[in-house]
Amino acid sequence: MVTTALDSRLAVAREVAASVCDPEVPVLTIADLGVLRDVRVDADDPTRAVVTITPTYSGCPAMDAIRDDLVLALTDAGFEHVEVRTVLAPAWTTDWMTDAAKQKLREFGIAPPTGRAAARGPIRVALGVKCPRCGSLDTREVSRFGSTSCKALFECRSCLEPFDWFKVH
Predict the structure, then answer these.
(1) Mind spelling out the 3-state secondary structure of the chain?
(2) What's the rounded mean pLDDT across residues 80-98?
(3) pTM for this one?
(4) Which of 158, 122, 127, 129 is nearest to 146 (CA)?
(5) 10 near 39, Cβ under 8 Å?
(6) What fold is seen in the domain 5-86?
């Protein structure tokens, strides 16, 4: 297989875009989260990159920072023209998060989403959210909204520590 200059530019653009961190949870990249949907390099102008992203929530305040970080990172990598497109359909789901992202959340002290959001049928009832610090299921929801709208605030009754839970949706 022959690798062209355009293939090489595309690989660079994808690697750079995938390395941009989420401003609200900086241990995760936008690729980890599944927010990064597509990266393209213009065949007629290999200095032009087009990146497509999907917000975790419509109106997510982090999208402006992500857009700016993408433009800066790709410009620093030699792309003179960077366009960032935001698409709302299909809607983002926690199913798009990588397993590595969920592990990073645990290590950061945030309980990752569990289960599949795309399941159809009866509404699932959460029996418990595991504490990312001590592993106990003896937890309670303190507030439906945590540090960001995509998280809820929980408290562990075993170790008494508060923690965020990344909501399934």
Answers:
(1) CCCCHHHHHHHHHHHHHHCCECCCCCCCEHHHHCCEEEEEECCCCCCEEEEEECCCCCCCCHHHHHHHHHHHHHHHCCCCEEEEEECCCCCCCHHHCCHHHHHHHHHHCEECCCCCCCCCCCCCCCCCCCCCCCCCCCEEEEECCCCCCCEEEEEECCCCCEEEEECCC
(2) 94
(3) 0.80
(4) 129
(5) yes
(6) GMP Synthetase; Chain A, domain 3 (3.30.300)
Q: Is the pLDDT of residue 56 over 60?
A: yes
Structure tokens at 93: 């789901």
Residue 40 to residue 143: CA distance in whole angstroms: 40
Mean pLDDT of 129-146: 91
Amino acid identity at 156: C
Q: Which residues contact 11 (CB under 8 A, 6 or more apart)?
A: none
Spell out the domain ranges in the chain: 5-86, 97-166
- Pair of tokens at residue 57: 């929530």
